[in-house]
Amino acid sequence: MAEPKILRIYLDPIPLQQARDGTFGIMNRVQAAFEGRGFRVEFRKNSERERLKSAMRNGYSLFYMDDPFHANSLTLRKAYYFPFWRIENSAKRWDFEVAQAPFNPAKVDPIQAQRWVSSWRKWNFKESMKGVTRDGPVYVPLQGRLLEQRSFQAASPIDMIRAVQSSTDRPILLGLHPGEVYDVEELAAVQAIADADPRVSLQTGGMIAALKACDYVVTQNSTAALSGFFFHKPAVLFGQIDFHHQMTNVHDLGQVKALSDIKQTTPAFDQYLYWFIQMNAIKADEDAAEQAILETVKRRGWQV
């Protein structure tokens, strides 16, 4: 039996107010797409209690970044750069549809891709390729929980740093994430590495300058690796993620081979970015966005 035509979207306070005010672009498109199919769309306050109650309600539930834990729920996540979005049946990026899809650069027009990347590099980073070199350090953008190996990681971040030290004679730049709060033990561990090895330097932020200068990127699954493709910098991944296709992956190759292979790796940078973002995400400001939303949720099993 078909579900009642109700869509409830669960949002934290600021995006909830933006959605109700009509200033949250992707929510405008979702609302218009579903109302065009006769649905009632409700913007609701997000909380664990409300999400749990959603499993008992008729209709469909759309969560903003939270895990879609029941059969009639999906999650909405930004595809790294505005105005691109994905609607998925898992909150884990490595389970996303695009993560499972094969990438074939032969099927992407290289001229169109190059133009698209040049335009979006200027839009997202206010940069061109002028001044970009590969003469700098190995850039290691860090995220959180530096001393812990999580389920999606091939090693803890601190062990990842040690693996990089063993794999290269180049300088190494460790980038602490400006949005993370590190505890005393974590900071002491990375500082001890920097103090003991004159090749290692430590900074907070500064991603764009690092990407312009570095030889290559090594990270768990930081978005900095994807952003590095805009500057034609290859990357090694120690963690699972959706943008793995053209990156050297420790889960597949092991640490030694992954860190060795990166020195001879030349990804299809522009074609990959165009395929991953433009061709495989919902662009909220395009006329076709509403149809793309409906087609996406249909593939996830919703009857709209």
| pLDDT averaged residue by residue | 97
Helical content band = 25-40%
Number of DSSP E strands: 12
Radius of gyration: 21 Å
Q: What general outline do the C-alpha atoms trace?
A: globular
Question: What do these coordinates show?
Answer:
It is a single chain. The chain has 304 residues and is of the alpha/beta class. The protein is 38% helix and 17% strand. It has 13 helices and twelve strands. The strands form three sheets. The protein has a six-stranded mixed beta sheet, sandwiched between helices. Strands 6-7-8 form a three-stranded parallel beta sheet, sandwiched between helices. Helix 7 (184-196) links the parallel strand 7 and strand 8. Helix 2 crosses helix 13. The longest helix is centred in the middle third of the chain and has 16 residues, at 110-125. It is globular, with a radius of gyration of 21 Å. The protein starts with 5 loop residues before the first strand and ends in a 5-residue tail after the last helix. The model has no long low-confidence stretch (mean pLDDT 97).
Task: List the keywords.
304 residues; alpha/beta; three-stranded parallel sheet; single chain; six-stranded mixed sheet; 12 strands
Short description:
The chain is built from 13 helices and 12 strands. With 304 residues, it is an alpha/beta fold. It has a 6-stranded mixed β-sheet, with helices on both faces. It has a 3-stranded parallel β-sheet with strand order 6-7-8, sandwiched between helices. Strands 9-10-11 form a 3-stranded parallel β-sheet, with helices on both faces.
